[in-house]
């Protein structure tokens, strides 16, 4: 079976201490660092933008995985690439020209990710398989950490695993990942699990050991 990567979402970290939070989760076994960018328009919440990404980049030794929950996307791709994103993931629902967006992400020198909201059929990704390095299945409605996993999305994960076949495309799952849901998610075929609240609960930069225990429990 494929190795599972854990990508903690810093949405659940201490916003006043991102540098040390990132160092702590990487020391505790995080494979990637997942950065949730929200615009108060595509999703009903606001987080941060390219300057914050640039500021945290020197603290990341693994992979900066930037999840854009913004619309439009295209005017901001170069700024996130310059800020040091390794992967830029855009939502299929964020505009009328997702193919162009994915092209632009690769042209900017980043790996291209495609995110699908829970209301989007997996087959919508079919024409884009040669354009993507990662597909992100949202298992909550995007906008907030700490929501409940939408069980019916296990079907979407399994359908995308079948569509991906042997292609070198990561299948990421984002939202409601916990020690309870993770085994079903892995069984359905995901290989990168984003987890915010389930990683950061119970720990702090002063006492980061719970982060490691939480990561291993997933
Ligand atoms: C949701 C974000 C997620 C979120 C996950 O809009 O894309 O990355 O932070 O949080 P948890 O793991 O708490 O569901
Ligand atoms: Zn995310």
TrEMBL record:
Residue spans crossing the bilayer: none
GO molecular function: D-ribulose-phosphate 3-epimerase activity; metal ion binding
Keywords of the record: Carbohydrate metabolism, Cobalt, Isomerase, Manganese, Metal-binding, Zinc
GO CC annotation: cytoplasm
PROSITE patterns membership: RIBUL_P_3_EPIMER_1
Pathway membership: Carbohydrate degradation
GO biological process, one term: pentose catabolic process
EC number: 5.1.3.1
Obligatory cofactor(s): Co(2+); Fe(2+); Zn(2+); Mn(2+)
Binding of a divalent metal cation, residues: 34, 36, 67, 174
Residues annotated as catalytic: 36, 174
Binding annotation for substrate: 9, 67, 143-146, 174-176, 196-197
Enzyme class: isomerase
Reaction catalyzed: D-ribulose 5-phosphate = D-xylulose 5-phosphate
SUPFAM superfamilies in alphabetical order: Ribulose-phoshate binding barrel
Cofactor details (free text): Binds 1 divalent metal cation per subunit.
Record-stated family: Belongs to the ribulose-phosphate 3-epimerase family.
Classification via HAMAP family: RPE (MF_02227)
Function comment: Catalyzes the reversible epimerization of D-ribulose 5-phosphate to D-xylulose 5-phosphate.
Name of protein: Ribulose-phosphate 3-epimerase
Species: Meridianimarinicoccus roseus
Lineage: Bacteria, Pseudomonadati, Pseudomonadota, Alphaproteobacteria, Rhodobacterales
């Amino acid at each position: 079976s494929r190795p599972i990567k854990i990508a903690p979402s810093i949405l659940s970290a201490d916003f006043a201490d991102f540098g040390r939070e990132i160092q702590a989760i990487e020391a505790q076994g995080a494979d990637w660092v997942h950065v949730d960018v929200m615009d108060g328009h595509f999703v009903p919440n606001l987080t941060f933008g390219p300057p914050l990404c640039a500021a945290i980049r020197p603290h990341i030794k693994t992979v900066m995985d930037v999840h854009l929950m913004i619309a439009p996307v295209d005017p901001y791709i170069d700024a996130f690439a310059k800020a040091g994103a390794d992967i830029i993931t855009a939502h299929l629902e964020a505009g009328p020209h997702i193919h162009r967006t994915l092209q632009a992400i690769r042209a900017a020198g980043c790996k291209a990710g495609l995110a699908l909201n829970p209301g989007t059929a997996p087959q919508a990704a079919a024409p884009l398989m040669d354009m993507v390095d990662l597909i992100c299945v949202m298992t909550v409605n995007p906008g907030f950490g700490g929501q409940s996993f939408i069980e019916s999305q296990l079907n979407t994960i399994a359908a995308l695993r079948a569509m991906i076949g042997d292609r070198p495309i990561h299948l990421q799952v984002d939202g409601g990942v916990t020690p309870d849901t993770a085994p079903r998610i892995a069984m359905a075929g995901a290989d990168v699990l984003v987890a915010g609240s389930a990683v950061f609960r119970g720990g702090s930069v002063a006492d980061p050991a719970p982060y490691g225990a939480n990561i291993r429990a997933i």
